[in-house]
Design a protein that fits this description.
Number of domains: 1
Helix content: 40-55%
Radius of gyration: 19 Å
Distance between the termini: 52 Å
CATH class: Alpha Beta
CATH superfamily: Vaccinia Virus protein VP39
CATH topology: Rossmann fold
Order of helices and strands: EHHEHEHEEHEHEHEEHHHEEE
Oligomer: single chain
Strand content: 15-25%
Shape: globular
Length: about 280
């Protein structure tokens, strides 16, 4: 049963609803994308004494890792627009005795007293700006001349089976219009030509890209098909769309999601679906 057309998936309200959903499933989200963040951290190779800005730091896991790498003579500042995630990140830093610091602000317009920084890092935190060129220009103003930025962004949805398989199930029950290319959202920078245009327009140069391919666990390592289903319905935007359609549609989609996840379940590993990301470097 397919319901009539619904509105295009709304942009993420990270300071509100989306931030709350991310916080409620923080361990699952971080467990799913941790291998990609680790690959980016290995690529950047931070050194003691460097000063690093972590854009879209979320719950602070990457900022804490950066703080450990740069040591007491360096600085790691996590920046995020979601106050609830910044609060969790600050609590984590305090519990770990880390010198990582966190600021809640909109990176598109923020001015930070701690600037300028040697480096900028972002694990999936750079794709949501409504006007990306001015936003990246503002970030560039926080960096030293010659500073390096390192971003992880999702590649095309067709190469991200964790998204395509879920959307395939959901579209059996709800008509969802195709995504608008280059619109703010997880796949805004799937097109590397567009990303290079954005960075060049903001004053960055020498963009280099390394592809990352992996098989992340949906809902985190070891999640069962039932746990992965609950994670998608509670945390992803499609879950909110299904909720709006009423219990009959939501329950039918839930049944199909569970069946799909069972096909991709590996005992002791989790629900494993392929992903692809771009690991991007550029300089001021």
């Amino acid at each position: 049963m397919t319901q009539g057309p619904t509105e295009t998936l709304k942009g993420e309200d990270w300071a509100g609803e989306m931030g709350e959903r991310w916080l409620a499933s923080l361990d699952q989200f971080e467990g799913m994308i941790a291998p990609i963040g680790n690959a980016l951290l290995e690529r950047v190779g931070y050194q003691p004494g460097e000063r690093v800005l972590d854009l879209g730091c979320g719950g602070g896991a990457t900022t804490l890792a950066i703080a450990e790498a740069v040591g007491p003579d360096g600085a790691a500042l996590g920046l995020d627009i979601a106050p609830m995630l910044i609060a969790r990140a600050q609590a984590r830093a305090a519990a770990a005795g880390s010198n990582a610091r966190f600021v809640c602000a909109d990176a598109a317009t923020a001015t930070l007293d701690e600037a300028p920084f040697d480096r900028l890092f972002s694990r999936f935190g750079s794709m949501f700006f409504p006007e990306p060129v001015p936003a990246f220009a503002n970030l560039k103003a926080m960096l030293k001349p010659g500073a390096r930025i390192d971003l992880a962004v999702w590649a095309h949805p067709r190469d991200n089976h964790w998204m395509m398989e879920v959307m395939g199930v959901v579209r059996r029950h709800v008509e969802i219009p195709p995504a608008i290319p280059r619109a703010p959202g997880p796949f805004a920078f799937e097109d590397l030509t567009y990303l290079e245009e954005v960075l060049a327009g903001a004053g960055f140069c020498d963009m280099e890209v390394a592809p990352y391919a992996g098989v992340p666990p949906v809902g985190g390592p070891g999640a069962t098909p039932l746990e992965a289903t609950d994670f998608v319905l509670a945390s992803m935007a499609v879950g909110q769309v299904l909720k709006q359609q009423g219990p009959q549609v939501r329950d039918a989609a839930r049944t199909d999601l569970l069946a799909m996840f069972k096909r991709h379940y590996r005992p002791e590993e989790g629900v494993m679906l392929a992903c692809k990301a771009w690991l991007v470097t550029a300089r001021t």
